């Protein structure tokens, strides 16, 4: 087999990136429950803010209606007092008509105030219930933090340690090969390389070990004789000989 310095360096980097991806997947799984709980609390808080906002407006409307009610009642009292100073039946009757009309308005306003009071009472009950739910969900979030806090910290430490090692491994890969590898890694995180699968007794069935599409035997022959980047025609991953993975020590964390 030909010297495989570049491919060996790529495989070593690939192993490490695969380990990092596995740890990150585990970290995301642990954090997903936390994010879901935080989203639930945020949704309840948003609902609470909306109800509180509506309640404040309703209370303000109620205050305006009550002030109007008080003003009209005072007006009625003044008109009643003025009945004692009327000089003709016509004046007396006219004031009575005004009082009657004002009483009708007062009755309408009183009905509106009552509806607003009932709405405020309903909203306040909803606010109380939402606050209880938020408190309960915050308790659940606190338990999640307590249960997963150390696990998250451990995974984060391992990831950071591997990322520190990655700098050295990446520097051993030629720039052009590294650029290709990094582009493919963006599409296939932790899975940018694929082994060539084949049977020595049947080289017509050479295939990509990741997408399982058939490959021309030329890829196998080239990698056996040259240290170069060969890519799958279907998935575009960088191909390597499976024995490279066995020959090189795996990344530990």
Plain-language structure description:
The structure is a single chain. By secondary structure, this protein is mostly helical. β1 and β2 form a beta hairpin. It has 2 domains: 153 residues, Helix Hairpins (Orthogonal Bundle), CATH 1.10.287.1490; 73 residues, no CATH class. The protein is rod-shaped, with a radius of gyration of 39 Å. The chain is built from 5 helices and 3 strands. It has a 3-stranded mixed beta sheet with strand order 2-1-3. α1 packs antiparallel against α2. The longest helix is centred in the middle third of the chain and has 83 residues.
Describe, in short, the structure shown.
By secondary structure, the chain is mainly alpha-helical. The protein has helices at 5-82, 89-171, 175-187, 217-225, 242-247, and strands at residues 193-199, 202-208, 238-241.
Descriptors:
253 residues; mainly alpha; Helix Hairpins; three-stranded mixed sheet; 5 helices; 75% helix; 7% strand
Instruction: Label the CATH architecture of the largest domain.
Output: Orthogonal Bundle
Shape verdict: rod-shaped
Give the tally of structural domains: 2
Here the CATH topology of the largest domain equals Helix Hairpins
**Number of E-type strands:** 3
Averaged pLDDT: 91
pLDDT < 50 stretches: 247-253
Strand content: 5-15%
Structural class: mainly alpha
Strand order of the largest sheet: 2-1-3
């Amino acid at each position: 087999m030909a010297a495989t310095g570049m491919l060996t360096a790529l495989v070593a980097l690939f192993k490490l990136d695969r380990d990092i991806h596995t740890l990150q997947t585990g970290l995301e799984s642990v954090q997903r429950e936390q994010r879901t709980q935080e989203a639930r609390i945020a949704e309840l808080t948003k609902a609470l803010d909306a109800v509180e906002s509506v309640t404040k407006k309703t209370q303000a409307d109620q205050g305006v209606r009550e002030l109007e009610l008080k003003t009209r009642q005072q007006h009625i009292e003044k008109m009643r007092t003025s009945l004692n100073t009327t000089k003709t039946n016509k004046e007396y009757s006219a004031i009575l008509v005004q009082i009657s009309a004002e009483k009708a308005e007062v009755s309408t306003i009183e009905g509106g105030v009552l509806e607003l009071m009932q709405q405020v009472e309903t909203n306040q009950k909803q606010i109380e219930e939402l606050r209880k739910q938020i408190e309960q969900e915050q308790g659940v979030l606190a338990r999640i933090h307590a249960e997963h806090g150390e696990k998250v910290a451990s995974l984060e430490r391992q990831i950071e340690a591997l990322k520190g090692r990655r700098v050295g491994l990446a520097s051993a890969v030629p720039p052009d090969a590294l650029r290709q590898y990094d582009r493919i890694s963006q599409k296939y995180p932790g899975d940018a390389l694929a082994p060539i699968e084949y049977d020595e007794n049947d080289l017509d069935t050479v295939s990509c070990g990741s997408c399982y599409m058939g490959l021309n035997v030329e890829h196998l022959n080239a990698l056996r004789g040259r240290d170069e980047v060969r890519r799958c025609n279907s998935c575009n991953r960088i191909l390597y000989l499976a024995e490279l993975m066995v020959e090189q020590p795996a990344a530990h964390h």
